[in-house]
Structure formats: C-alpha cells, structure tokens
Amino acid sequence: MRPKPLRLILVRHGETDWNVEHRFQGQSDQPLNAKGHEQAKAVATRLQDSVIDLVISSPLQRALETANAIAAHLNLTVQCDDRLKERHFGVLEGEHYANWTANHPEVWKSVSEHPHSYRLPGGESIDDLTRRVESFLAELVKLHHGQTVAVVCHGQVNRTLLGLLLGIGFDELKHYSIPNTSHSIFDVYENKVEVVDMSQIVITTGTQWRI
Q1: Which of 20, 53, 143, 187: disulfide with 5, CB 3.0–4.6 Å?
Q2: Burial of 94 from C-beta contacts in 10 A (0-12 / 13-18 / 19+)
Q3: CB count, 10 Å around CB of 138?
Q4: Whole-model pTM?
Q5: What residues contact 5, with CB distance under 8 A and at least 6 apart?
Q6: Which residues are marked as active site?
Q7: How many Å apart are CA 66 and CA 138, to the nearest integer?
Q8: CATH number for the domain formed by residue range(s) 6-203
Q9: Is 182 within 8 Å of 12 (Cβ atoms)?
C-alpha cells in the first residue's frame, strides 16, 4: 500500500506598504496594509474547504496576520516557527530596490561575486537561509506525513522551499514570481515530490530575485 504523503500548501503573506514601495523588508516587522488584509481574507476563503490539519507561520506580522485569517476559517490555532522568517537583509532593510546598488556598491560587488555565500552586513546569505529552511522542511516531512499542512511565509522563503521540493537551483529560481497570498500545493513522499497545483506561480524570463 502506498504511504500517504505530507500535503504541503505554501502561502505567501498579503501585501504590505513596503511591497508597494518596492523596499527590502526582510525581518523588519511590517504589518499588512488594507489590501493585504483583504488578500488574507480571500486566500482564507479559497482554502476553507481544504482539510487542513495544521497551519504554521513565520512569526513576522505580515505572515502571521495572513495565517490567522486562514486558521480562523478552519477553527485552528497557528503555530509559529522562526525558521520561516524572511531572509535577513541587514543593511539593506528599508532600501528601495532601485537604489541599493548605488547606495551600497561594496555590497553589490560582493553579492555579484559570491551570490550564494556572501552574508549581507548585519544579515544573512542565501546559504544561511537555505540551511534553516531545509531544517524546517525535513522536520515537517518527518513529523507530519499523512497530514495536510499550510505554511505561510515570505517570498524568498517560499522560493527556497520550491527549490528544495523541486530540485531547482538558484539560477532558475530567480525567474519564479510568487504574488502576495498566492498558494501552491505539493504531495511530499519520502523519496519524491508531486506537484498538485502551481498555477498561481508565474515563471518569467526576467529576474525576480533582486539579490
């Protein structure tokens, strides 16, 4: 008999003002804006008929507010996990995407030369982020096979999870656009992953990751 998988539903948080202003948020604790709250209600409605056993969220406000909206429809309580926090962008947090290379030329040089391993001043590297997200995913699969779990987190965390689930490398992941409150669904077995729904993720020819 085929073992039951972990059904994993990945959700990105709703919109914040810094999303609109195109600023690096990272672990700056920005709340949802009015549109973000409406988006959170909408994704909660989309998922309300799903048989979800557990909702796990980043503890940052924008993710937790989204997760609480989903959990309320399901009569569940959200569990938080620090490993789901957005990548810490250090000195870049609050910077506009358009300005950071000019304002931080040495950081830009180091990111260009060592995109995976360079640790942003006061923040994290891509490798740092990958290690903690990989730890979370391994534990999730071990403890919750046969269950359906909704995980609410952030853009780079979502992309990192996608990469781990699908075996996609950094260069390819740069082209994955994950809109606010989009969700994707995967069945995770011990030795393989099946895609159930990735229709809300947009794959483009342009680069979506900015660093």
Answers
A1: 187
A2: middle
A3: 11
A4: 0.95
A5: 145, 146, 187, 188, 189, 194
A6: 13, 154
A7: 24
A8: 3.40.50.1240
A9: yes
Q: How many CA atoms lie within 13 A of 77 on its CB side?
A: 1
98-15-46-195 Cα dihedral, nearest 10 degrees: 30
Which residue carries 């300005």 as its tokens? 99
Give me the residue label for tokens 């993710």. Answer: 63
**Domain residue limits, the chain:** 6-203
Distances (CA, A) of 59 to 56, 65, 121: 9, 9, 23
Q: What is the pLDDT along the chain (211 residues), one digit of tens a residue?
A: 667 999 999 999 999 999 999 999 999 999 999 999 999 999 999 999 999 999 999 999 999 999 999 999 999 999 999 999 999 999 999 999 999 999 999 999 999 999 999 999 999 999 999 999 999 999 999 999 999 999 999 999 999 999 999 999 888 888 899 999 999 999 999 889 999 999 999 888 766 556 7
| Pairing label, strands 6-12, 148-153 | parallel
Distance separating alpha carbons of residues 181 and 44, to the nearest angstrom: 9
Strand order in the sheet with 183-188: 78-80, 54-57, 148-153, 6-12, 183-188, 193-197
